[in-house]
């Protein structure tokens, strides 16, 4: 692709630089063990509770103005999941016990691999780097703190701290201004076609790079078409070579 020299790279966080889905699996396993010990229920019942929680998490639409914290909201997810499966909550503290174990276990399982750290160090010698992540502000900040990635970026932008998140153009414009670059100088890298790639296309970046974390090629049959697809963020240097 001929065009403007690349001056900056915008990275998504979850399932792009860190394996959030895998960490979530570890957290669910540990919470399953708690449920088994506390309630003496079978694996199918435990799976039902955990699957209900994961569905509530997926559909979550947290409102910071509601007067309830994100922690409170997610404790309630666990309480409802248990109640819906068993018909009642065996003890009033169980939802909180499940949530805080799940939360700690997930954060503990998150990390930037040595290979990703090395990649970011090398890239930062040549490009401006910015982390752009969607999500509730405190939750995403906790992930950033857990993996200690601040040193690798010129700026970190958490969507939940702003009026609009990816794929809205406004948050990309904020990122460009934060770095002092133009859209056509930037590459957007992420695992979500709907937010990372569509957002980059909306904003007019030089190139979008989809980190395909195992989704089928059929996912590309829709209207969102990344400029490049890689199986791992570690393949990014090969893409950048083509953009020179």
TrEMBL record:
Cofactor: Mg(2+)
Biological processes per GO annotation: N-acetylneuraminate biosynthetic process
GO molecular function, one term: N-acylneuraminate-9-phosphatase activity
Entry annotated with the keyword Membrane: no
A Pfam family recorded for this sequence: Hydrolase
Keywords for this protein: Hydrolase, Magnesium
Protein's recorded name: N-acetylneuraminic acid phosphatase
Organism per entry: Oryzias sinensis (Chinese medaka)
Lineage: Eukaryota, Metazoa, Chordata, Craniata, Vertebrata
